[in-house]
């Protein structure tokens, strides 16, 4: 056997010329070797072919060739993608031939958008997001961060798979692995940098080492340069595999919180009787998708270097992680123009306010914020805060303690995770344990985005909540019974509106608003058409409400914002 192996080594190293290749060899030298290699090994047995395949892969890897296994497997193929040694077909990807003429970016986005809305019923902002997401997949080499999208639904038949069908037509190198394993994932991404489309993504919620490994790969794979180390070959040589690339997850229910924080969440619902989409005919849509892919490829080739040097940032109302994953989309939208940045701002406002998984402490802080800001008072007793939480129908707090509701000491423990702790307060002639509004200010500033949306904190959601615009309705105006300062425990007031607390209002106004405040106010109005002046003011951070009025006044010079005048 040793003599036979030496003969095979001589075939690879000597006769076919692998020994003459080095780190300075040209692509033409490599092509010549692979062509001769494929022809020479054809007469060998399956075992001999596998042996020389491994020798060739290791030899090419030693001289620094990227993804040598794919090159060698292709050279061994029989012309139909089926390797001569072993079953199955070699996984191959190729970019489409670029469109023959320069492509206008605005028109390209509109055609993509038309394709998406023809076959999908999506929540507000999702069609614009997926349109720009598609362009980013073709220009991914320009960015240090890859966008992730999570297409979620409460049950089946809500259109998740159709979203993947549409994306499969137009994204760069679409890859839909039916059975997802860690080795399949990191080897496929290392070799081809595809756009990974994962249907039935519930596997990432699984238990055991295999599911944990997949989650770890996905958690890290949105940043360029992050690799996974694996032992390779008979010598167990330690090698790094790249796992960077755009990904889309389709699943029923929720994804793990850490993964969701890296995603833009699109919450799907089953179509109503009055909602219609085009009939999906593969033979009709595939040629159209191919033409769009060629146009996308041409636009990407023409603009890749401009995107590499782009310094465009995501809007500052997004949290750090969300701003990071949205930045490539805003770079593309800003370069294309045609109002697409404003459309993407509106999409970001809509999609970053959707339900995501969170800890009990995070959910409770969201509901406490609604109660505090809605009550217009400067303090609240611990017992009254627990009562208010238990009055939120559809939220988890009434189910605590076997249906008796959450208790004040449990509220204190959860708020303690944010360094919010009860103090001794005065309510009328009584001394009680409770919370002055000031103790929440730091937590609200740190964990909430402007406009009431959460950054790292996620709002708890009523269990059955669907708004007419396609999004789950956040109960931002809870109707709860809360004791006002000076009232006895038996005398309570009814909170029905979210208002700016009087304790934070003041007569002092800035002489001129800052540019950042005006930009925030403008982006909020764009993202919330028809919103009221009070809503814009309340969208500013908790401690800066009184500075917001001048920023709103600065918008009145634009006729489209004239309705905001006092």
How would you portray this structure in words?
Helices cover 45% and strands 10% of the residues. By secondary structure, the chain is of the alpha/beta class. The strands form 4 sheets. The protein has a 5-stranded parallel sheet. A 3-stranded antiparallel sheet has the order 8-10-9. The longest helix is centred in the middle third of the chain and has 27 residues, at 282-308.
Reported for the largest beta sheet, the result is: 5 strands, parallel
Low-confidence spans: 1-5, 78-84, 451-511
What is the assembly state of the chains in this entry? single chain
Strand order of the largest sheet: 2-3-6-1-7
- Arithmetic mean of pLDDT: 78
Structural class: alpha/beta
Shape, please? globular
Number of helices: 21
SS elements, strand count: 12
Radius of gyration (CA) equals 29 Å
What descriptive keywords fit this protein?
566 residues; alpha/beta; five-stranded parallel sheet; disordered N terminus
């Amino acid at each position: 056997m040793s003599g036979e192996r030496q003969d095979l080594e001589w075939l690879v190293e000597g006769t076919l010329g692998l020994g003459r290749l080095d780190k300075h060899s040209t692509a033409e030298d490599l092509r010549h070797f692979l062509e001769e290699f494929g022809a020479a090994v054809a007469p060998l047995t399956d075992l001999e072919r596998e042996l020389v395949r491994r020798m060739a892969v290791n030899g090419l890897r030693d001289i620094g060739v990227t993804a040598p296994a794919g090159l060698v497997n292709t050279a061994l193929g029989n012309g139909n993608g089926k390797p001569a040694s072993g079953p199955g077909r070699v996984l191959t990807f190729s970019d489409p031939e670029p469109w023959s003429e320069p492509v206008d970016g605005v028109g390209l986005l509109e055609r993509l958008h038309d394709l998406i809305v023809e076959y999908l019923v999506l929540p507000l902002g999702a069609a614009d997001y997926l349109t720009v997401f598609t362009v980013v997949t073709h220009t991914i080499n320009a960015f240090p961060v890859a966008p992730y999208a999570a297409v979620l639904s409460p049950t089946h038949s809500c259109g998740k798979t159709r979203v993947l069908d549409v994306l499969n037509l137009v994204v760069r190198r679409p890859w839909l692995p039916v059975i997802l394993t860690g080795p399949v994932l990191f080897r496929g991404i290392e070799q081809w940098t595809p756009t990974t489309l994962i249907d039935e993504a519930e596997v990432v919620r699984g238990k055991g080492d295999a599911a944990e490994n997949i989650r770890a790969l996905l958690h890290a794979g949105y940043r360029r340069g992050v690799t996974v180390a694996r032992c390779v070959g008979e010598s167990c040589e330690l090698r790094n595999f790249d796992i960077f690339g755009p990904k889309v997850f389709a699943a029923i229910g929720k994804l793990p919180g850490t993964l969701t924080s890296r995603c833009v969440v699109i919450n799907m619902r089953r179509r109503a009787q009055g909602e219609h989409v085009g009939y999906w005919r593969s033979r009709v849509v595939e040629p159209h998708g191919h033409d769009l892919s060629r146009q996308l490829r041409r636009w990407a080739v023409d603009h890749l270097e401009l995107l590499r040097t782009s310094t465009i940032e995501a809007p500052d109302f997004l949290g750090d992680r969300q701003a990071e994953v949205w930045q490539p989309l805003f770079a593309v939208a800003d370069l294309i123009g045609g109002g697409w940045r404003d459309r993407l701002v509106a999409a970001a406002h809509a999609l970053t306010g959707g339900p995501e998984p969170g800890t009990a402490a995070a959910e409770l802080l969201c509901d406490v914020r609604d109660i505090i800001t809605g009550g217009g008072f400067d303090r609240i007793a611990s017992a009254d805060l627990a009562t208010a939480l238990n009055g939120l129908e559809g939220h988890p707090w009434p189910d605590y303690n076997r249906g008796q509701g959450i208790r004040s000491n449990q509220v204190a423990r959860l708020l303690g995770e944010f360094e919010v702790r009860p103090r001794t307060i005065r309510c009328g002639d009584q001394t009680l344990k409770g919370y002055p509004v000031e103790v929440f200010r730091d937590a609200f500033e740190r964990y909430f985005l402007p406009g009431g949306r959460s950054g790292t904190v996620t709002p708890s959601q009523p269990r059955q909540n669907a708004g007419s615009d396609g999004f789950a309705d956040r109960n931002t105006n809870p109707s709860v019974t809360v004791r006002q300062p000076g009232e006895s425990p038996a005398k309570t007031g009814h909170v029905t509106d979210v208002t700016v607390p009087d304790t934070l209002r003041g007569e002092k106004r800035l002489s001129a608003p800052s540019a950042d405040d005006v930009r925030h106010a403008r982006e909020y109005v764009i993202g919330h058409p028809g919103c009221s002046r009070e809503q814009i003011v309340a969208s500013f951070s908790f401690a800066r409400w009184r500075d917001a009025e001048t920023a709103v006044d600065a918008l009145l010079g634009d006729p489209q914002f004239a309705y905001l005048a006092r």
